[in-house]
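We close this part of the discussion by returning to an individual protein. The sequence in question and its structure tokens are set out directly beneath this paragraph:
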Amino acid sequence: MRILTKTLFFAGIFPFFQAFAQQAEPAGPPRDWFLLDPETDNVQGTSTEKAYTQLLKDRPAKKVIVAVIDSGVDIEHEDLQGKIWKNEKEIAGNGMDDDQNGYVDDVHGWNFIGGKNGNVSVDTHELTREYNRLKKKWGAVDTTRLEKNQVADYQSFVALKRKFEALRDKNREQYQLYANAYANLKKSIDTLRHELQTEELTAEALKAYTPESIELKFAKGYVNHFLTQTGSEAGLMEHLEQLRAGAEYYQPIAEYAYNDQFDPRAIVGDDPANLNERGYGNNDVRGPDAQHGTHVAGIIAANRQNDAGIKGIADPVIIMPVRAVPNGDERDKDVANAIRYAVDNGARIINMSFGKSYSPQKEAVDAAVQYAESKNVLLIHAAGNDGDNNDVDKNYPNPFLLNGQVAKNWIEVGASSWGADEDFVASFSNYGKKSVNIFAPGVEMYSTIPGSQYEVLQGTSMASPVVAGVAALVLAYYPELTAVDLRKVILDSSRQFDNLEIVKPGGGRARFSDLSTTGGIVNSYEALLLAEKISKAKKSKR
């Protein structure tokens, strides 16, 4: 998983985390802002609460299964109780494939990045895997003996190698920068607290202190610099936490993502080259780090009937966890199998909050996307958090198939914010007049995380489940709609902003209508109204 499924708090680059931390003040939006109505609540929400109050009260609904292909889901979370899919045909813990679907003891879903002896936690980026693959062919080639038809391929390898090495070196430098700064500041704080016999470091206390050794002089100067910058001890400690988080963020990238000697796939025990292989993995749907997937699941389906932390968008929903996304880039084979597993086990909607820049086995993913289309399943995917134009920069998976066709069961989602101007579109969101379909709330999203806790995260990874939730809500009340119908409902009912000029992700200004195919933001209320019209029209033709 690239930026959008790592710690989204950083929204693509770590300096944004610093800006976010400074802005985390009471002036921000309400915790449930994505559920609220633009007119009555003055935030660019989805009008979901309005829909429940004015359109859905006392109406019957059908349960909808939404698959969450992600890093894992904490199925024990207090706010997801009664919301997790159960395979009624499978007997838990008997070590048998009771329902003969090819997956042993898949009671609550499946994990395609685990094996008999554990789980893959971190993996390389696809760029690293591509570099390794091409290095075997071109790494030691005699360039003086290249055939004419080999020159272009060799030059492509050289360009890819340069990119890999540049990113490897950059991320190693960033890790060392944050790790060293954190270690130095923490050691200096601890040293001064010991010397001054106090837990409270103030500017006044430091001014009155005369250190004797070089080490103590360094500690005083280092702490005093940041204490002056931040204005208080609380600010100093917040800065220390930011440095720690920065080191934590960059460490797996530096040590694993761009490490061409690292390969955790032996844990899974499959044949990575066999795209037709099924049944590998294990039934641990939580995995070693389920923060991201649990947050996604809560946005879609957190229990609306209890008094716990939040309300999800769709009440009549069951979440099917499918683990296929490590800390690193997901593999095409796993994505393809995850889609097929979800489809075969009854999911009508699949949320995919992950992405990457290379897709060497795209044909397998394309086949799975077409399989989902043939089975009437809607796929919803996050556009990415690089502030890039996806019409120009590749982002996978996507609905643009190798055979030239475009999948009709796909919605690509960018992230919007709660306010106006610079707070209208997420500064990190990818966009694209041709490749992104719609925007949805994805900034400062409060949702579930493991251990029955809650946290604010942000990214297109959070915007995608907003759309998945709205789609599930519509389908629950209009189950006769096809995946193509549902896609049309979501896109055609989006809130429009004619000629609105906004701050564009990545810098500059643009019309909001130029950032996606619809130029709109998803809206539950309007989607339900349109679904009613389409449903009546379909029934009248019978």
In short: The chain has two domains: 3-124+279-540, 126-257. The CA atoms of residues 306 and 326 lie 32 Å apart. Confidence is low (pLDDT under 50) at residues 1-26. Residues 151-196 form the longest helix (46 residues).
